[in-house]
Design goal:
With about 675 residues, the protein is an alpha/beta fold. It is built from 23 helices and 19 strands. About 35% of the residues are buried. The structure holds flavin-adenine dinucleotide (FAD).
């Protein structure tokens, strides 16, 4: 190997490879083959003393692909048949299962590097790099390294797990053995043999028969606990013992691969800092295979460099990420089901189709076929939980927006009752319930006596407002609209992290106007049912030109407010409220009230009170039942003016709620 020629810290290397594992080795071979190292200088930062990769790398592909991936000189064995003992032994059509010896890869890489100008740094990368317009500067083991392009293969870290994600290990321990008798069928490799104890995990044996008397026999575990050497040795001893021959151990392979469906946390240092290998998410978390992806990526990087272009990696299709999450969730929650899942899969689906699926190359119809063969209940349960988690992570605003679109569609199809059904469930579960938690927001109630006094004062406030209705329906209506506007604006601005004050109040006015004044006929129909309300005549007298002016003013004020606060949320709300003008007044208001206002309120209460949804429902139950009972009574038995009376009742129940929530928001924001 040539001696380093670039010791000066002021020199700028053309390439810096951080980590000299499988990914960067494959890349180095590809770049060299394509003449991209000619006249270039290279730096390598690799902390490991042992520059030989002892791993066994396997992958499957056609023979032509092996050549296209520059792997033909590295592949040491290939098999056409794959066996799942007791289940199947199949020809995998145009594919072969290939084996590459880790030391062959490292030796070839070393040989190539010996032809280049290389400086090695046997240390880890320190600190964050400094980026300048001409070069990138990093420090390692006290040395400063400047370079133009970095390929970084340090092992990645993961962000905190979401509920739908899982973290397991694929751990393995294997022996390369030489037997006294020719016991191995060299035409066929064993991909998964589940005829071993499962030990509260998913475990199988994997066999690569190199010769009729030489093979790698490896125990693999998918599980939360890493396989210990002792456990593995006992199982392997027993398993190999069944071959009925004595054997000699030639080599040992030990390894752990993270099976993590979480998000990689990789800092972005610009276009000239390219993550590679596992760091570039090229390791499929549900299988632990990465070699084929890394070889393909090496070709991609080479082509991009050759053409002086930015490499564009294909983003992982979201449905495959979904399948990975499902499998990992099942393996994590019900590890003993793993054996059943894989055995069923190989019993009912051709191995070549399974391999295509694991390479994420199947079509959706092939995936439907595969999933139709798997234990349905297991996957449906995992899928419904995953979908629930994904939806619950969407911004709350997605819900009313999508619902409005669906409700419009349903009303065209005259299926509006479906939307009503959903809204009614939402109203009972969150709409009423978020108000039924007001007794928790004052944080003072410690005894039944205090609770009774809270309920009485709550009802008293409502009753007092009832008296206002009795004296003057017009005054009460205006007050009701004003405090509703205040309350809705306050909750939305809280959710969107915007400053409370006149703007939040104005937003409340705008949104109420956008709902009410785009449904004037229906509004007057309802108001006419309120006894002694004279202002309803004013509504009738508004000429259509003035009504249009009010509508235009409402929308433009909303747009100005959205611009002032740079709030996309505000804009989206305005858009779906305008879309909701195609629906009935009650539906439009219901969508906003249940799916935005109450959902936000519920979330704020859950965070502020530090309570889970199930606990909150339990706490709210008595008051929800009480509230629902009163409303049902009025709707069913209050006679002709039921909507008007319902309206009055709602306003009376709303007033103490508005006070409670205002108090709660002040308390939580001051904290
Ligand atoms: C035992 C084993 C067997 C596997 N077999 C297969 C297989 O058959 N088929 C398959 O497709 N996949 C397989 N994999 C998965 C995958 O292909 C390998 O993990 C592969 O080595 C990943 O390549 P990499 O370059 O991303 O990481 P690595 O090969 O692990 O290389 C990373 C390098 O970065 C270095 N490094 C670490 N920290 C720093 C630092 N701070 N600064 C600088 N350098 C650092 C390390 O020393 C290491 O050399 C296997 C994995 C293991 C562990």
């Amino acid at each position: 190997m040539k001696q380093p020629t670039l010791a000066s810290s002021t020199s700028v290397y053309d390439f810096l490879f951080i980590g000299l594992g499988a990914a960067n080795s494959l890349l180095i071979l590809s770049l060299y083959k394509n003449g991209l190292f000619d006249g270039k200088t290279i730096a390598i930062i690799e902390p490991s003393r042992k520059l030989t990769d002892e791993k066994t790398f396997c992958f499957w592909s056609t023979k032509e692909e092996v050549v296209a991936l520059n792997l033909d000189e590295l592949v040491s064995n290939s098999w056409k048949l794959i066996e799942i003992p007791g289940i199947t032994k199949e020809n995998i059509n145009s594919l072969h299962y290939h084996h590459v010896k880790g030391p062959d890869l490292t030796n070839k890489t070393k040989e190539v590097l010996s032809q280049c100008e290389v400086n090695y740094f046997q240390s880890t990368l320190d600190h964050t790099p400094t980026l300048s317009s001409n070069y990138i500067e990093v420090t390692t083991g006290g040395s400063v390294v400047r370079c133009r392009k970095v390929f970084d293969s340090r092992p990645p870290t993961f962000s905190k797990l979401q509920k739908s994600q899982s973290s397991l290990y694929q751990s393995f321990y294997g022996w390369k053995i030489k037997t006294d008798q020719p016991v191995f069928d060299t035409s066929s490799m064993v991909l998964m043999d589940f005829n071993i104890p499962q030990h509260d995990a998913t475990q199988f044996v994997y066999v690569l028969p190199f010769e009729s008397d030489t093979a790698l026999v490896e125990l693999t575990r998918f599980g939360k606990e890493i396989l210990t050497k002792e456990e593995a040795q006992t199982i392997l001893q027993e398993h190999v013992g069944q071959l009925g021959t004595t054997f000699e151990k030639l080599e040992e392979e030990v390894g752990v691969i993270p099976m993590h469906s979480g998000t990689l946390e990789v800092a972005d240092y610009g276009d000239n800092w390219i993550p590679t290998g596992a760091r570039a998410n090229l390791l499929k978390c549900s299988t632990g295979y990465a070699f084929h992806n890394m070889a393909e990526d090496a070709i991609l990087q080479t082509k991009a460099l050759k053409n002086n272009q930015k490499p564009v990696r294909e983003t992982k299709k979201s449905r495959f990420a979904f399948y990975d999450r499902l499998l990992l969730k099942i393996l994590s929650n019900t590890p003993l089901q793993g054996k059943r899942v894989f055995e069923t899969l190989f019993k009912k689906v051709p191995v070549s189709t399974v391999l295509k699926f694991l390479r994420e190359k199947t079509t959706p119809s092939e995936e439907v076929f595969i999933f139709s063969k798997l234990p349905l209940k297991l996957f449906l349960t995992a899928a419904s939980k995953d979908i629930y988690h994904q939806i619950s992570r969407l911004p709350i605003l997605t819900l009313p927006f999508v619902f409005t679109t669906v409700a419009i569609l349903l009303s065209f199809l005259q299926l509006e009752f479906i939307a009503w059904g959903v809204l009614a469930i939402g109203f009972l579960s969150v709409g009423l319930a978020h108000g039924a938690l007001d007794h928790l927001t004052s944080r003072k109630i410690k005894s039944t006596k205090q609770l009774i006094s809270f309920v009485l004062s709550y009802l008293l406030k409502g009753a007092l407002f009832g008296i206002v209705w009795w004296f003057s329906s017009d005054v009460a209506l205006v007050l009701f609209l004003l405090y509703s506007a205040w309350h809705f604006g306050q909750a939305d601005f809280k959710e969107w992290n915007l400053k409370q004050g006149w703007q939040s109040f104005l937003w409340g006015v705008i949104l109420l106007t956008a709902i009410l004044f785009f449904h004037v006929e229906e509004l007057s129909g309802i108001l006419m049912q309120i006894p002694n309300l004279s202002s309803v005549d004013l509504l009738h007298q508004i000429p259509s030109s003035e009504l249009i002016l009010i509508q235009v003013l409402t929308v433009s004020s909303g747009l100005i407010l959205a611009r002032l606060n740079r709030s996309t949320n505000l804009l989206i709300t305005l858009i779906y409220l305008l879309m909701a003008s195609q629906l009935s007044l009650l539906m439009a208001f219901g969508i906003y009230f249940v799916l935005q206002h109450s959902m936000n309120g519920w979330k704020h209460l859950s965070l502020g009170l530090n309570k889970q949804t199930s606990v909150m429902w339990k706490n709210a139950l008595p008051f929800t039942v009480g509230g629902a009972g009163i409303l049902i009574y009025f709707l069913l038995f209050a006679g002709e003016n039921h909507i008007g009376l319902f309206f009055i009742l709602l306003s009376c129940l709303s007033l103490p709620h508005v006070f409670s929530m205002h108090h709660f928001y002040q308390l939580t924001s001051s904290k």
